[in-house]
């Protein structure tokens, strides 16, 4: 019998898990892309991105594209590790 490790509560949120899943496949993405793919509201997505950034799972860069603000998110090494551990722990529950 394998020992079940607790699932990372930060990644257990549907929206945060969706963001991490997207970022792990594309490495970096603009806020508008994440908003469109997750179908989240701008406010909710902002809050969840902030939580992921504070945990060190993603980096957020704010700049401008012309006169429009541009927010780009990228997954960090810590984020990749946390995501991989989450998936592995989830796999242990399923098997």
TrEMBL record:
Pfam families noted in UniProt: HTH_34
Residues of the Winged helix DNA-binding domain: 15-94
InterPro entries associated with the record: WH-like_DNA-bd_sf, WH_DNA-bd_dom, WH_DNA-bd_sf
Protein name: Transcriptional regulator
Organism taxonomic ancestry: Bacteria, Pseudomonadati, Bacteroidota, Cytophagia, Cytophagales
